Amino acid sequence: MPEIAVTAAEATDAERNAVADSIMLQDPGQISFDAAGPALTFDGDRIARSGQERIFNRRHLLLPVLHDVRDAIGWLSEGGMNEIATALQVPPAEVYGVASFYELFTFEAPSTPDALHVCDDTACRIQGANELKAELSADGYDVHGSPCLGLCEQAPAVFVQRTGEAHVSVRSATKETVVAAIGGAMTNPVAPVPQPAEELTLLRRVHDAAAVDYDGYVVTGGYEALAKAVAMSPAEVVTHVGDAGLTGRGGAAFPTGFKWSAVAGEPGPRHLVVNADESEPGTFKDRVMMEHDPYSLIEAMTIGGYAMGAEQGWIYIRGEYPEATRQLKSVIAEARSKGMLGDNVGGHGFRFDIELRLGAGAYICGEETALLNSIEGYRGEPRNKPPFPTTHGLFGQPTAINNVETMVNVNQIMLLGGEGYATVGTEKSTGTKLFCLSGHVANPGVYEVTYGATLREVIELAGGATGNLKSILMGGAAGSFIGTDMMDVPLTIEDSRENGFALGSGVVMLLNDTVDYDDFVARIAQFFRDESCGQCVPCRVGTVRQGESLLRIREKGSPIDTERKMLDDFAMVMKDSSICGLGHTASGAILSAIDLGLIGGQQ
Amino acid sequence: MTFVDIPVEIRSKVTISVDGEAVDVLEGDTILDACTKAGKTTPTVCYGPTVTPVNACRVCVVELEGSRTLVPSCSRPAEEGMVVKTDTDRVTDNRKMVLEFLATSSDVSQSDEIQGWLGDYKADLDRYDAATTERMTDEVKIEDDLYIRAYDRCVLCYKCVEACGEDAQWTFAIAMSGRGFNNRISTEFDVTLPDSACVYCGNCVAVCPTNALQFKTEFDLRKMGDWRPEDQSVTRTVCSYCGVGCNLDLHVQDNQIVKVDSPMDHSITSGNLCVKGRFGYQYVQNRPDK
Question: Residue A554: which domain range?
Fold first, then answer.
């Protein structure tokens, strides 16, 4: 074993125990993932990663161990990180480099054991988040402003990151409920889905509290999709997914069948990764599905594993989703005990298991290659593509990465058949789509509609806007503002594109004329500045420069024309020369706000 | 008879079009290699002949037919039939913006190359209002007598990280830390170099494109206004410490060694040295007549 040089700082006994406990818990075999079976058996110690060879040992445990030490101790000390470096044989400079990438880790002893991450992002911002933040700060709590916590329908939201105790998300938070959560009060999530069950397809189980355990799930038709899948050959399953015309629901709308057949055609081992790092401001649909119908995701992933011959599944869920994390942990354990995950899934003669991994506060880890690096124990910096994950994905092996909602649609495809599924919706946008309605709307929540419903129809489902509707933020921070003249545009991939906006992850945030747009748009710019990984120059500097430009417009009365020229230049280089989608989309909302006259003094 | 199996690497020819001209390169070569072969001058910052490009700087971008965005030429392998354009407004505008971003966020005054490109691409730095334009303002780190770290000049190209890690030294004493504009090259927990895992090979100093890392001797002379490259001689010699026989280039000003490096194109060392070769030159100057 190579010698790892660490600094003189030593771990406390508590830190040492936390590291040892974490590794025992994560890695009973003490060596990589041998216990997880052949999917993660490597040729020697080395694996190919993006064309480079890297030593692979237990590095992929870095993020889980950092989490466990932080959760036990409350922060990460130099001694604690030295202990992690030695235990995992990762150089301490890299341990620090990785840990300091994530928002949920801190490096100084906190004043109180529980950190309060108060969402002050888009939806919460217009519903009293800043006031709540000030109130909690004044009372001496360890308060951190947070980007969107994915609880926009129950704004304002607070993530209580406790020490030695379970984390809690507080919804419709007040000072009193936050204090209660610090004291141990747990949140019992209620599905924010106002539609009745008979109008729902993907979401049909969310009102059924019994469906979150195995028996209840099976009673409601659970695992029927898997039965249909295993009656076919894996290649036929992939064909059905292709025929269905399913496209990615995470934002990019990439054809899922294309991805799956590419992975299935590569030599194994292969991986199936579910991207549950739902962090696009205004998005909360995946959270709702994972909290209220977690088995659907497990079943769909099992079908995917069967179809692509991937024996190892991974769910990468954002660290700020404690309730969804608990649900998934519980159903994964139960599915294993029922034989629905493991060496012989349901007696069907194939192997599939799922490893759950937690993010630690980094929007960029929702970018698929950043997500892979994060799982592998590296900084969540996106990789250059090509090569694509379908050939060089997790640990350099062929990998399909799908969003939660995309994945759950696979069950429906099995039930209806690919062609049957394709009859739902429009020709180019098939199936149903989840929209996240928040902001100034009567009944915020997740709404499921057949592709083709207009923006007006979706808003009416939610009881209409409150106040005098002025604009709608579509697709989140990475999307754009549109005006009320778009109300009759069908919310399909093709119609939205034709009208100059994108559905993205399904955010429909209504904003009435009480919104301080200067402040709101500045927060979006701040979001990208905070969340850029900083790897490439166009995005690292461009996200800062566009924020400064907005500040000059707002506070220095700088002429909009001058600043617009600069903003256009920043947008061009971020769109054309950034490595990943974050840079490509970081300017869209801001420029659309100027075009609509929401900022820049043309109101 | 015993046959010794000597692996022979056979690379096939790849032909791509660069600004309309057909260029032959070998499989595995990059678009940048093809551009260079076609006589194009391509600005590069994070690319270096001895380190794996992280392609973070994006100043070498070119247009590639069929690609929605521009692609980094330094790391994109050439593929048969690619059609590349380097002389379009789109390429020029993007490079200009990247250069403006570099020059408005870090002090690139000690990089003659970047200074040249800023002029070539007509970067307009005056349009950035100084009062509202955030820069890297780190204080220089002087922690020993061998080299200094001036991160206000750092452009976060990752070259030093690569040289310290997988591309040369395998010491991993430095890594990228933080996120976004707060990214910094850092030792573990940001401790000083003497407290870190650093072995003072100085291979990071050798690859730094902006002089953010530099010999303490150079730093001191610059501070005194007495750094005179035009008056320096460079003498190539062989390191006298061990049997490897690394080449040294001794930079001498006023009969004093002020900097040591090693030729990047050397087949054995690729510009890398150890602490003795790079910093252990003082004995040469302990002359009895002094």
Answer: 517-595
